[in-house]
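Milestone 3.1: sequence recovery, worked example.
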């Protein structure tokens, strides 16, 4: 079976989508030969030079360059043409598949937040997702999502049967581990302009991440004199309507205590997580929520919202709060700032929780979907 995998997002700083694609490809290629017997993987990339260095040289797959320009032609024309030329038996994409394709398609949809929070998306993205994703899902041989919460939402919103949707949980990659070396921690702080005590929030700077409310909670603690010299670090790439967040920080009068380091390189993330007093993730909606799990793998205490899939992911290993209640968030932050014993307990629970997730398991379950999708297609074809 020849599987064409659309990995165009690797190297594009698309955070969640990029992390999923890269780690799944790595895990698929790292499986023992008997586990992926009969399956050949071909990677489609718009920038192979960005993908190749991030793969293990001992476990490479063929990489085909898909022309990135003009971008609107990549999905409807470049992808299906490449799949046809490669005689692919299956095409695996994220969110949007070619409307006409030469083989069955498996589509991964992390979440459908654009349906519930359309105001958090640009008009262009909102139109594209609301139009193309339902069409893709209805015609896909199989749908993969990353949590039971997302599975239920997709089933309800698009009336898809349960037996066409598989859940494959994500995991923290092997690079995420506790970093205790003071020199390494000091180096990453110096390069990003951080203080020794900081709360870390990470992700695209978009309204769905609820960072304005996090800033409001931080301001509330400052007014109460409960920050104890703690800095707030908001790491990530600016996206739709990020100007509202910057304006709120400027208005707060605490701009010197709130840091925007921008997009953080993957290599720096373990140290950045490990050095944080706590990791804060007050998101309103997540299909999975990988950053809290990465922080847990680094033995960093986690404060996160109790919304959408996040309780499913963090279990009892995080301090959770109502993401729509500034006071609830402020109380949780005050607790982790002031209570070292609580931070130690959360760190220990987090390590145990993160160990329950595995990219190898995700890869094995994805292979099972590939086989089921192709078998289903063969069953449908006339003899």
């Amino acid at each position: 079976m020849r599987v064409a995998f659309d990995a165009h997002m690797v190297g594009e700083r698309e955070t969640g989508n990029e992390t999923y694609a890269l780690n799944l490809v790595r895990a698929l290629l790292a499986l023992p030969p008997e586990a992926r017997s009969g399956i050949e993987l071909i990677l489609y990339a718009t920038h192979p030079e960005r993908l190749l260095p991030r793969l293990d040289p001992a476990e490479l797959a063929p990489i085909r360059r898909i022309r990135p320009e003009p971008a609107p032609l990549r999905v409807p024309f470049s992808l299906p043409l490449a799949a046809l030329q490669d005689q692919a038996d299956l095409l695996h994409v994220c969110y949007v598949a070619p409307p006409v394709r030469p083989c069955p398609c498996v589509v991964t949809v992390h979440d459908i937040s654009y349906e519930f929070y359309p105001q958090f998306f640009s008009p262009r993205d909102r139109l594209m997702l609301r139009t193309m994703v339902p069409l893709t899902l209805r015609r896909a041989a199989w749908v993969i999502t990353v949590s039971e919460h997302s599975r239920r939402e997709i089933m309800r919103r698009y009336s898809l049967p349960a037996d066409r949707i598989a859940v494959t949980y994500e995991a923290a990659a092997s690079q995420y581990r506790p970093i205790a070396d003071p020199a390494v921690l000091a180096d990453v702080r110096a390069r990003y302009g951080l203080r020794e005590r900081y709360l870390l929030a990470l992700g695209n700077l978009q309204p769905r991440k609820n960072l304005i409310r996090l800033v409001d909670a931080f301001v509330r603690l400052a007014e109460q004199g409960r920050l104890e010299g703690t800095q707030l670090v908001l790491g990530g790439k600016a996206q739709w309507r990020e100007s509202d967040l910057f304006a709120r920080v400027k208005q707060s009068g605490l701009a010197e205590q709130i840091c925007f380091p921008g997009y953080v390189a993957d290599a720096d993330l373990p140290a950045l997580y490990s050095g944080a007093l706590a990791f804060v993730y007050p998101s309103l909606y997540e299909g999975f929520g990988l950053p809290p799990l990465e922080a847990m793998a680094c033995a960093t205490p986690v404060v996160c919202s109790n919304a959408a899939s996040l309780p499913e992911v963090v279990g009892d290993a995080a301090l959770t709060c109502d993401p729509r209640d500034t006071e609830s968030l402020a109380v949780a932050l005050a607790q982790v700032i002031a209570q070292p014993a609580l931070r130690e307990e959360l760190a220990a629970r987090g390590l145990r929780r993160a160990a329950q997730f595995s990219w190898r398991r995700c890869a094995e379950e994805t292979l099972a979907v590939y086989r089921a999708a192709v078998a289903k297609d063969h069953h449908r074809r006339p003899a």
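The chain has two domains: 2-171+358-380, 182-354. The two ends are 19 Å apart (CA to CA).
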